[in-house]
Structures are given as structure tokens and as C-alpha cells.
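Try this one yourself first.
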């Protein structure tokens, strides 16, 4: 089997299209996308692309938001983002290929150190293909040039930060450590998430970007869904189990548990617990109660 067998499969399918094509892949590199467009017959009227833009992945170099630039030269292209996307599916009219290969040089066999991939041909009418398409459509948003530029800028800043978490590519590698909030300014998260950080100091910005990289929240959310996503991730932190399960958390107990779990000093653990309290105050409905050691309790305090 030739090294570029996957590329030959994709080329053959898309080259036979008459009306429309759909490209669904989490990772799409601009050079590979350009080569795809050269294959698509001129008579095809619609080119629909669904992908995933995540700041850590862009920083790691596996995905290029710059594919949005190609829309300026080919008005048939429409690009959508689906943050939970893992499937790889390529459709030409009523036929499709489904399998493991992204639209990258390594996945398609266009570079020497290529991946081992598989694509299986199927009819688009297959019930599982239809289920996948419906799910992807329900969870997708329209990609824009502004969003592409914003995510690229954040990815570049993350790459320049020596203290940033290791750039982990989801699907390929598990994080080496669990996340605890770093920034003491959680109110800055949504501002930076939206690319508005001209007035944010460099130290605060770096910490916020590191937290956003660990959170890896879908782009383009409005404020309330963003806060809900952060809140959901916070409540997965083991030290907050009591708050999640009983509605209250003793801060001394949380500090002691953090010391036992991570081996950090008492001072470090105290700072982490105080930071967690700041985040919970901003993203959740909680209040502090001076009962022995202070407690965090669910619900806003009525004054």
C-alpha cells in the first residue's frame, strides 16, 4: 500500500463530486486544505467544512485557524466549529469516507513520517452517518475571521510563555498534572477569552491564558454559557467534592486535603484554597460563613 493511500482515497472521492462536499475533521492544516480545494471540481457549488479550533491545539501546531483566509478566494467555502468534534468524515454528494484521518500531512501520508490511518467508504444515508451529521450540526457555530485571529493571538502568547502548561494534543496524550486555578483575577477570564486584553497587565494575562488553556472551553460562548462551563470544571476538582455533594466546604479541610494530595506546603495550599474561593465567588452562587474555620456555602447570602 502506498504511503499516501489515504490521500488517494480522499482525492478520488472529492474529485468525483458534482454538487457539494463536506469535510469534517478536528485537525485541518492550511496547506492540506488548499490541496483539497484544487481537487474539488469547479461545478461543485457548496464546500462545507467543520473543524475544531482550540488554543492549546493551535499552539501545538496541529490545527490552523488560517484556513478561514481561503474563504476570500473561494466563496463556496463555509467553515463551522464544533469543539467536541472527534469524528473524521468526508462527503461527496451521497458517498462518504469515515475513519481516523484528519486533514493534515501526517494523516494523509503527504509527509515522510506519516500516521497509520484508515478510511472506510459508506453511503451518506447510513443511519449512523445521519446521526453524526445531526449531532455535529446541533453543536456547531459559524467560524469568523475575527475569531480565527483571536485564537491565533492567544496561541502565540501561550507558546511564548515558558511557564505555560505542556501543550497537550487531546486524543493523543493525557495531561501530566491536574489543574488548579492560578490567576487571582477570575473576573478577567471572560475578557481575555474574548480577545480583549489590551488593558490587562502582562503577569495577570499570562496566568489567565494558562488557566484558559487548561480549561479549554469552546470558543464563541456568551457570558452565561462560559460561566457555566467554568463552574462545571471547578466542581470536578477533588478538594471541592464536599461543596458539590453537601453544599458546604470547610476551607481548612480543603487546605489539608490539598496538602495530602499534592504535597504542597501549608502556605501554598492556603493560597490555592483562597484562589478557589475567589473563583467560586465569581462563577458560582456561594458565600463565606465564619463558622470555626471559614466555610464556603452554596447560595448567595441575603443582606
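Now uncover the answer:
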Amino acid at each position: 500500500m502506498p504511503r499516501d493511500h489515504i490521500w488517494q482515497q480522499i482525492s478520488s472521492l472529492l474529485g468525483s463530486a458534482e454538487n457539494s462536499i463536506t469535510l469534517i475533521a478536528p485537525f485541518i492544516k492550511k496547506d492540506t486544505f488548499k490541496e483539497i480545494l484544487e481537487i474539488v471540481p469547479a461545478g461543485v457549488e457548496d464546500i462545507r467544512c467543520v473543524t475544531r479550533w482550540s488554543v492549546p491545539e493551535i499552539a501545538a501546531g496541529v490545527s490552523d485557524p488560517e484556513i478561514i483566509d481561503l474563504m476570500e478566494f473561494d466563496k463556496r467555502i463555509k467553515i463551522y466549529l464544533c469543539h467536541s468534534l472527534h469524528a473524521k468524515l468526508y462527503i461527496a454528494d451521497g458517498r462518504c469516507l469515515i475513519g481516523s484521518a484528519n486533514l493534515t500531512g501526517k494523516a494523509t501520508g503527504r509527509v515522510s513520517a506519516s500516521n497509520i490511518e484508515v478510511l472506510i467508504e459508506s453511503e451518506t444515508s447510513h443511519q449512523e452517518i445521519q446521526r453524526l451529521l445531526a449531532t455535529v450540526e446541533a453543536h456547531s457555530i459559524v467560524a469568523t475571521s475575527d475569531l480565527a485571529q483571536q485564537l491565533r493571538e492567544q496561541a502565540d502568547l501561550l507558546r511564548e510563555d515558558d511557564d505555560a502548561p505542556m501543550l497537550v494534543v487531546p486524543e493523543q496524550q493525557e495531561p501530566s498534572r491536574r489543574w488548579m486555578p492560578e490567576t487571582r483575577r477570575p473576573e478577567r477570564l471572560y475578557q481575555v477569552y474574548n480577545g480583549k486584553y489590551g488593558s490587562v497587565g502582562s503577569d495577570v494575562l499570562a496566568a489567565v491564558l494558562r488557566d484558559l488553556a487548561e480549561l479549554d472551553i469552546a470558543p464563541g460562548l456568551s457570558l452565561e454559557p462560559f460561566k457555566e462551563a467554568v463552574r462545571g470544571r471547578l466542581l470536578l476538582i477533588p478538594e471541592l467534592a464536599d461543596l458539590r455533594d453537601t453544599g458546604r466546604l470547610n476551607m481548612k479541610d480543603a487546605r489539608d486535603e490539598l496538602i495530602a494530595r499534592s504535597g504542597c506546603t501549608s502556605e501554598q495550599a492556603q493560597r490555592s484554597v483562597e484562589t478557589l474561593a475567589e473563583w467560586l465567588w465569581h462563577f458560582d452562587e456561594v458565600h463565606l460563613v465564619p463558622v470555626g474555620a471559614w466555610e464556603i456555602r452554596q447560595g448567595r447570602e441575603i443582606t
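Discussion: The beta strands are 20-24, 46-51, 77-81, 88-92, 95-99, 119-123, 141-142, 248-250, 286-289, 295-298. The first helix runs from residue 5 to 15.
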